[in-house]
């Protein structure tokens, strides 16, 4: 039974969310974890702020000619994660996502740091085996084995995912930061790394993914800091919000079997204007309408 975690957040829900999960196609959920960040914490407050600013959105997308009502979204709230306990937090996320997928719902997560994507991938692997690929939009490689001796780090989720489902099943776009060894490893093992740009390389890759199940993970820092200052590890030279919308719409219109998605690393404290949370809310709206069939 999928329940709403009312005790774990303020009670606000994403705009147009259904009151009950029964009729939902999509389950939106928060993962308020920033236990392993290496620079600035605060992304545990991202999901709730995204909900709060979503009230400023229209429910209709003129880009996709669709409405949030079509996505039939149920907002389950934030998973109550034990502060500072990364292993237990990851186990709780994995168990929740398994329940959502096995209930026949589309899981759409909000982070939290990017390590929260790792237990989601484990849940997807439990259900689908190796029969899916990952589309990853990010400024950072996230291909480290560990950070300062710690294997559970927000700099490791895509390396863990690649080791689980195979490097050739992982596609990263917009990458502009990482250790030299990470880029060398990607080249050596056939990991699909696309540096700096997103839209054009993505459009070239999407036709090759026809017939495959796809999981999409977006780190908000794929955007340039001028468009999204509210994130823990800013990297200049990123894409615009218009380009990110174009990328999401390209994925939505590619006819793929999208099995789940997440958007992570919104840290409201570093953006008093809320432009980062507002951008995240709109991107999530487009994901709900475009990814959920």
UniProtKB/TrEMBL annotation:
<dbReference type="Pfam" id="PF00491">
    <property type="entry name" value="Arginase"/>
</dbReference>
<comment type="similarity">
    <text>Belongs to the arginase family. Agmatinase subfamily.</text>
</comment>
<dbReference type="InterPro" id="IPR020855">
    <property type="entry name" value="Ureohydrolase_Mn_BS"/>
</dbReference>
<dbReference type="InterPro" id="IPR005925">
    <property type="entry name" value="Agmatinase-rel"/>
</dbReference>
<keyword id="KW-0378">Hydrolase</keyword>
<dbReference type="InterPro" id="IPR023696">
    <property type="entry name" value="Ureohydrolase_dom_sf"/>
</dbReference>
<keyword id="KW-0479">Metal-binding</keyword>
<dbReference type="GO" id="GO:0008783">
    <property type="term" value="F:agmatinase activity"/>
</dbReference>
<protein>
    <submittedName>
        <fullName>Agmatinase</fullName>
        <ecNumber>3.5.3.11</ecNumber>
    </submittedName>
</protein>
<dbReference type="InterPro" id="IPR006035">
    <property type="entry name" value="Ureohydrolase"/>
</dbReference>
């Amino acid at each position: 039974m999928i329940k709403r975690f009312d005790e774990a957040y303020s009670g606000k829900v994403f705009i147009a969310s259904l009151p009950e999960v029964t009729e939902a196609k999509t389950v939106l959920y928060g993962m308020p974890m920033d236990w392993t960040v290496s620079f600035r914490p605060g992304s545990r407050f991202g999901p709730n702020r995204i909900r709060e600013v979503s009230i400023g959105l229209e429910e209709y997308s003129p880009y996709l000619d669709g409405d949030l009502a079509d996505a039939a979204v149920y907002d389950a709230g934030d998973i109550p994660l034990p502060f500072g306990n990364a292993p237990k937090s990851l186990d709780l996320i994995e168990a929740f996502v398994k329940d959502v997928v096995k209930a026949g719902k589309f899981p759409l997560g909000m982070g939290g740091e990017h390590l929260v994507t790792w237990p989601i991938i484990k849940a997807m692997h439990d259900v689908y085996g190796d029969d899916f690929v990952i589309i990853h939009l990010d400024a950072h490689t996230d291909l480290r084995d560990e950070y300062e001796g710690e294997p559970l780090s927000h700099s490791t989720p895509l390396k863990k995912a690649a080791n689980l489902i195979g490097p050739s099943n992982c596609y990263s776009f917009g990458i502009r930061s990482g250790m030299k060894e990470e880029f060398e490893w990607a080249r050596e093992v056939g990991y699909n790394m696309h540096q700096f740009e997103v839209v054009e390389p993505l459009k070239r890759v999407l036709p090759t993914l026809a017939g495959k199940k796809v999981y999409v993970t977006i780190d908000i820092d794929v955007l340039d800091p001028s468009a999204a200052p509210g994130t823990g590890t800013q990297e200049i030279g990123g894409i615009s919000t218009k380009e990110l919308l174009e990328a999401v719409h390209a994925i939505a219109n590619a006819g793929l079997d999208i099995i789940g998605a997440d958007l992570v690393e919104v840290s409201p404290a570093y953006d008093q204007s809320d432009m980062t949370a507002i951008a995240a809310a709109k991107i999530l709206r487009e994901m709900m309408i475009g990814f959920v069939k």
